[in-house]
Amino acid sequence: MLLERGEWIDVFRELLPRDDWQDLIRLQVSQHAYPFEVKLLERPLKQNLHIDDFSDWTVRSHMIMTDDSQLERFLEHLVIEQQEMATKVEVTLIIQKQGQGIVRVTNDCVSMYGVAYEELDDVGTEYENFFDAVLPNASFPVEVVFCGRDVLDNDDSIHVMTLHDSNWQAVLEEHVLHLLNRKEVTSGLFSKDARPARQTLEDFMSEFSLLMPYNFIVTRDATNRFGMLDHFCTNGKIAHFGKVNDGNIIH
User: Fold this and answer.
1) Could you name the domain of life of the organism this protein comes from (predicted)?
2) 46 phi and psi, to 5 degrees?
3) Same domain, 22 and 97
4) Which of 49, 67, 111, 229 could be a cystine partner for 104, CB 3.0 to 4.6 Å?
C-alpha cells in the first residue's frame, strides 16, 4: 500500500550511471508550476558536518525562476563536482516553491521531494517484493542499478543492467550472480572453501540482502519513474518517485 507523497529521498550521485543530476532537477521542476526560488550555497570543505545546518554557508546566488529558458541558462554553466572531486568547497543547490523544497543537489547526492513509500510484504524476498511493486507501472526499458557495498569493495560494488521485460530474474542471474565468486564473499555458505558447484539467484539474494547497510537497488524506467530500496535512504521500504504523477502539474 502506498503512503502519501510527502517525503524526501536522497539518491547518491554514484548510483546515477551518467551523474545526470541536472535531468533530475528538470524532472522535479516539470511536475510543478513556475515560479521557483533558487539558492546556490557554498562553504569550505568539511567545515561543518551537520548537513542540515546552513548557518555557515555563503549564498552564491539567489533568484526567482519564472520559466524553463531561465532555468536552462542557469544550469548551462553550473558545475557541482562529485564528492571525491570536490577539493575546496561544498556546494548545495536548493530549489523550492512557496517555502517547500522540491529538489536539492549536493556534492554527493540528489534529494527529491514527493516520494511514496510502500511497505514490504511478509511473503517473498525483498527483491521479489521490490520488482513486483515497481515493474507493473514501469515503461521499458528499465535501468537497474545494484550496489553491494555491504559485501564488496567500494571500487567495484556498483553494477548497471537493463530490463527489456519483466523477467528480472534472468537479468540478475546474467549480470550479478557471478559476484558470489568475489574474494570479498567470505562468510557462511560462500566462504572460499565451501562454495557450492552451482550458485542460484536465491543464494545471491540471501548473501546480498537489500536490508543490510550499503546494499541498494534503484530502477529508472523510460519515463523517469524511479523505484528504490535500501537500508538507509528508504528505511527498508520501497520508494516510488520521479515522474509518478503521469503528467499532472502541481500549482
Assistant:
1) Bacteria
2) 60, 25
3) yes
4) 111
